[in-house]
Amino acid sequence: MCRQHNSSTIVEAFTAKLNTNNKNNQPTPRPIIPSDSFAHLSAIKDGIDILPAPNGKGMGAFAATFVAKGSTLGQYTGENLTRRQIEARYWGFSKKANKHDRKWRNSRKRRNQGMSGDYLFDMGDDIFIDGEDADVSSWCRFANHSSPGIMACNIEARARRRQSPMAKIISGAEKKGKDAPTEDDKACHLYFVALRDIEAGTEICYDYGVEYWDT
């Protein structure tokens, strides 16, 4: 769910808990994330500590050094999935599943990666970023929720349109009448930006958005 805000887009965390395997809406067990996963390695690179969070929230992301207001802390990465893929893989629409969806599920199970659907960002145009697979998602998956308007809510998610390195190649291929690559030359990327100064040792939290809790 996106809404315009100045020159950027604030993106609210979104998930629909329609998984038929969890009809009682019980918390989905979280797999242990290996220390050599991309999620942990990206935290080291960006100066983030992944530690147990207070109040039974599980693991959380903490600033290892001082972060100035307006700084970009990291990029929320993961698999880019379509709405059809989300419906087939997470929301229990089995009739929409194909061999690629089944291969995806088998890969997650084999690598002990979660399949809760709780790490989805709706980027609009039926495109989602799925940060649940720790082998391809960054440390941002560990950032916990905090209600807006309080000090604990110290970052926000912003989407930015960035010129792809493929843009010139695409343009050139089209001019020559050749088949152009299908990569979107205005791909949307999601970043965490500090709303205020963040002292070292402070947990990094943001507002997941009303859709996360209402669905």
What is the gist of this entry?
This protein has 215 residues and is an alpha+beta fold. It is built from five helices and twelve strands.
Account of the 3D structure:
20% of the residues lie in helices and 24% in strands. With 215 residues, the chain is an alpha+beta fold. The strands form four sheets. It has a five-stranded antiparallel β-sheet with strand order 1-2-10-11-5, with no helix packed on it. Strands 6-8-7 form a three-stranded antiparallel β-sheet. A hairpin with a 2-residue loop joins strand 1 and strand 2 (8-11). The two termini are 13 Å apart. 26% of the residues are buried. Mean pLDDT is 79; it is low at 1-24 and 166-186.
Uncertain runs: 1-24, 166-186
| CA-based gyration radius | 18 Å
Main sheet attributes: strand count, strand direction, barrel closure: 5 strands, antiparallel
Spell the H/E element sequence.
EEHEEEEHHEEEEHEEH
How much is the average pLDDT? 79
Helices, by number, come to 5
The class by helix and strand makeup works out as alpha+beta
Biggest sheet, spatial arrangement of strands: 1-2-10-11-5
The end-to-end distance, rounded to whole angstroms, is: 13 Å
How helix-rich are the residues, as a percent range?
Answer: 10-25%
Overall geometry comes to globular
The total strand number stands at 12
How big a fraction of the residues is strand? Answer: 15-25%
